[in-house]
Amino acid sequence: MKKNIFWAILFLIFFIACDEKESKNSNNFSIPSENIVHKVKLEEDLTEFSNNEKLVIKLLIRASMYNDSMFFYENISNFKEIYSQIKDQEKKELFVYNFGPWDRFNENKPFIEGFGEKPSGANFYPNDITVEEFQNYPDNCKNSLYTFIRRNQEGELYCVPYNVQFKTYIDSISVLLLKAAELTDSPEFSEYLIQRSKDIKTDNYFKSDSLWVRLQYNKLDYVFGPIQILDDCLFNLKAEHQSFLLVKDEVWSEKMHKYNKWLRFLQKAIPVPEEYRAEEPGSNSSISVYDIIFFGGSATAGGTLISVVLPLESQTQITQGVKNLQFKNIMESKFDAVLKPISDIVLTDLQKEYISSEAFFVNTILYEMANSLGIRNTINGNGTVRNALKDYYTTTSHIKNYALSLFLAEKLYEVSELSNDLKENYLTFVVDLLRRIRFGLNNEYAKSNIVFYNYLVENKAIKYDKNNHIMIDYNRMKTATESLTNQVIIMQGNGDYSGVKAFVDEHLYIDEKLYNLIISINNNNIPTDIEIVQGEDVLKF
Predict the structure, then answer these.
(1) What is the pTM of this model?
(2) Which of 338, 330, 341, 241 is nearest to 532 (CA)?
(3) CA distance 410 to 403
(4) Alpha-carbon span 49 to 55, nearest angstrom
(5) What would the pLDDT profile of 251-275 be if each residue is shown by its tens digit?
(6) What is the distance between the alpha carbons of residues 430 and 90, in angstroms, rounded to a whole number?
(7) What CA–CA distance (Å, rounded) separates 389 from 366?
(8) By the 8 A CB rule, do 377 and 383 touch?
(9) What are the beta bridge partners of residue 532?
(10) Which of the residues in the chain have pLDDT under 70?
(11) From CA 475, how far away is CA 246, in angstroms rounded?
């Protein structure tokens, strides 16, 4: 699939992101959009799996496919009707690729006639709901990660739990999970699948999440449910459905286990006052490396995920720990097809040699490690950081994770756990910022990366030569990284909504130099992302 949408506004404008936050910077250009994708087949050698385990894989692929329908509904209610009315084949493909009629790589602009802007609350809320109305609605069900907010004939708000809205899908999924539980060779995996089949019927995932966190040694792994918050740009509250079917890379996972022992040391080393780093990482936290063999739901929407830290709920993370999942085959594909070609265009010749696939891999791991470090509850009684920072929580959380990931690289290098040159981590990280910025302003990863990139430029860690190539000042990178880590975690710990809002809004802009940098990448036809080709026929059982 190739779609060329290239536009630019060369005079002063203000852009509006999906949550309608406007930058106050006076040098503000739109992100030039160029959606070219590189197709990648999710092939895998399954010969070491028993016949029963191969049947388990087939059952879990079928369960995963229901995520697509649920995620479609989370974006637009009548998606089946709309799809059936699309005559143009390319637009049909785009509709499926974007899970709706809005282009995720072009600031959610509609590509089908008759549609306006994508609602900032997707399909989680009535389109006409106001912030004041939501706040005044007295039922606490509104704050659940797993409810839709609807309006009755009298105009009053009410909640619909996910397990009610999706009952038909969930009943079918539950049957598939129970069949897989009967066939698997692993008692622990079976126990998890059985519990998950129960939890999806109640929207209470604590028991199955706890079992899953402790599931450390199975060759096959499966993650399923409303497990990330991405498309709710209104209140940053509602989780959406996705799934990952994974085959563990035993060799690389063993290499990554060395990082687990450093979690408590790294938490205590964070450059903030002690009260902001007092929380302990969960005792069961782990890092594992996988080849992903099937994605479901939102996992490929607006950029295919390369890693994830789960479970989603903060209190489960604190009491049970997390699993840091790294998708090795996806990382390799993105590095070869996107990151390395970008580096050849944007870096000076003197620094190109420091782009490294290993650094890309390590940086991604450290980002996800950072997700389990820091602070989740405010220190002044304002509740969880998520609730205190509201619609700015996700962007701020990404900024914290990116800043902290480089700080973690520095600390692990100091204790000789990283053997590569730190210059590789710095250079690869900055080029990766540009890769994600191209996802567009509707994407929370892109927004957080714009903020981070501009912070580094303002602190002279990133400079431009006369040809608009970027150069990295390594000493200033270290200083800026530690400074940003400190600022963001303290604001999180204080539940400082106004401070976070001011910081993000101040740095969320595209100036002329960054704009021209993205233009140069687009003009060389560098893919924006990869497109997954997957299924039973690709795996070749």
Answers:
(1) 0.84
(2) 330
(3) 11
(4) 10
(5) 888 878 778 788 889 999 999 999 9
(6) 34
(7) 24
(8) yes
(9) 40
(10) 1-28, 30-35, 282-284
(11) 39
Give φ, ψ of 146 to 5 degrees.
-120, 40
| 309, β-bridge pairs | 324
248 has which bridge partners? 290
pLDDT in tens, 216-244: 889 999 999 999 998 999 998 999 999 99
Name the nearest CA neighbour of 365 among 393, 397, 331. 331
Give me 232's structure tokens: 């709710």
Please state at what angle helix 474-494 crosses helix 422-437, rounded to 10 degrees: 60
CB 36: neighbour CB atoms within 10 A? 17
Residues 359 and 76: their CA atoms lie apart, in Å, by 39
Place of tokens 């509707």: 442
Contact present, 24 and 505 (Cβ < 8 Å) = yes
Q: Are 74 and 241 in contact (CB under 8 A)?
A: yes
Residue corresponding to tokens 């602190």? 459
> Helix 187-199 crosses helix 206-213 at what angle (to 10 degrees)?
160
Cα distances (Å, whole numbers) of residue 315 to 239, 312, 376, 383: 16, 9, 9, 12
Length of the chain: 541
Max Cα–Cα distance, the chain, nearest Å? 67
**Measured distance CA(65)–CA(297) in Å, rounded:** 8
* Number of alpha carbons in the 13 Å side-chain half-sphere of residue 208: 23
Q: What is the DSSP string of 161-182?
A: EHHHHTHHHHHHHHHHHHHHHH
At 4 the three-state DSSP class reads coil
Query: What is the rounded CA–CA span in Å between residue 139 and residue 159?
Result: 8
> How many angstroms separate the CA atoms of 376 and 373, rounded?
9
Q: Is the dihedral of CA 223, 226, 231, 236 positive or negative?
A: negative
Strands 109-110 and 102-103: antiparallel
How wide is the angle at C-alpha 500 spanned by C-alphas 495 and 505, nearest 5°? 160
Containing H/E element for 457?
helix 444-458
Q: Are 129 and 149 in contact (CB under 8 A)?
A: yes
